[in-house]
Amino acid sequence: MTIQLDDQDIHKLHYDQIKQVLKDEPFASFLGMKLTKLGPGTAEAELIPDDRMLNSHGTVHGAIIFSLADYVFAAASNSYGKIAVGVTTNVNFISAGKRGETLTANAKEIKKNHKLAWYKIEVLNEKELIATMEAMVYRKNHYFVQQDE
Q1: Exposure string (b/e) for 12-50, b if CB count within 10 Å is 16 or more?
Q2: I want to staple 43 with a disulfide (CB 3.0 to 4.6 A). Which of 68, 76, 121, 134 is the partner?
Q3: Please, are residues 68 and 75 in contact by the beta-carbon 8 Å criterion?
Q4: For the stretch 115-148, what's the b/e string if a residue is b when 16 or more beta carbons lie within 10 angstroms of its beta carbon?
């Protein structure tokens, strides 16, 4: 008899491996993003923008803000060890980020089923909300953590 584990059980059982895979995400590492929290369907990350991440107006480029939001979206949606890939995102830029201030993004799962999951993401600077994102993933049938047979 095979015991089927649910998403919560897989998250707990393989937490260290899942966190390491998500922490080592190449593009996030390249930009200097740090995964600070990971829970089932949730994630938080930080970034301190430098001069290379600014636009021509001297504020943080929208692509950097989007990348930070997208990173926590990916971490939260893959937090169960099951491969999840982005399908849609909708970003609202509310305020400007500045060089040297810590940007924090957090993602929260709103709903999931076998194939799809929906998330709300916020990006904040040290004083205020600077962007929001709503996003959806497609949940594949494959895991990136080893499942016991």
Answers
A1: eebbeebbeebbebeebeebebebebbebbbbbbbbebe
A2: 76
A3: no
A4: eebbbebbbbbeeeebbebebbbebeeeeebeee
User: Rounded CA gap, 79 and 84, in Å?
Assistant: 9
* CA dist., res. 43 & res. 122, Å (int): 11
Q: What is the pLDDT along the chain (149 residues), one digit of tens a residue?
A: 556 789 999 999 999 999 999 999 999 999 999 999 999 999 999 999 999 999 999 999 999 999 999 999 999 999 999 999 999 999 999 999 999 999 999 999 999 999 999 999 999 999 999 999 999 999 999 999 976 64
Q: Judge contact between 105 and 97, C-beta under 8 A.
A: no
The pTM score is 0.94
Closest residue by Cα to residue 75 from 113, 108, 115:
108
**What is the dotted CATH code of the domain comprising 7-143?**
3.10.129.10
